[in-house]
Amino acid sequence: MPKKPIATCSLALLLLLTSSCFDVLEEVNLNKDGSGSMVLTVNMSKSKTKLASIMLLDSVNGYKIPSRDDIDLALNDAVAHLKKSNGISNIKTTKDFDNYIFSISCDFKDIESLNGITAELISKQNQKGKTKFNTKNFGYLPNSKIFERRFTYDPSIKKSFDYLENENKKVFEDAAFIAIYRFNDQKVQSVSNTLSRVAPSKKAVMLKIDAMSFIKGEKTIQNTIQLSN
């Protein structure tokens, strides 16, 4: 993204200023040929009453409260970036200011196109921060029918968290990361992440982990999913 991945700049500031609980939802719908669609959602509905009050203010603790226009601009910047990405199409955003749920979605030609959205951003972060985050978040091998959600934990995650003020740390106490992977033409045979739940239809996998366990490296979003016809 131009400055922040998937327009999180204004949304992240809202979270830190309001000590709100939130969920981040990552959804991937994969076709057998490797094409598919993705949706990324930030859901702050659990704190919508508090957020509604905060949005009426100009600033909190010296920080300017992002307006609806600021959030719109951030999402528009994300869309502009996606339009320049190879193999990405059908880009859409949804904004629910009543419940504070924001999402951006797109179709991808193949997994490499999906990885290309954030690869450059992650690579620059690795160089700047001397971190070792995966530049390719997803993998798919059609012949062996293996889908991967790749992730390598880096201690910089915990270090960044430790720098936050105690009030801002509270934001993450009730936060969660939720991943849902759906397979339109194949069934799930096995999963490597023991926290995963396979749908009764065998065509979807859900993984939910609390933010604090993720930050401390106690739980991971890394997952290898073996598929079958």
From TrEMBL:
It comes from the Bacteria. Keywords: Signal. PROSITE patterns: PROKAR_LIPOPROTEIN. Residues 1-25 form the signal peptide. This is Lipoprotein. It comes from Croceitalea dokdonensis DOKDO 023. The lineage of its organism: Bacteria, Pseudomonadati, Bacteroidota, Flavobacteriia, Flavobacteriales.
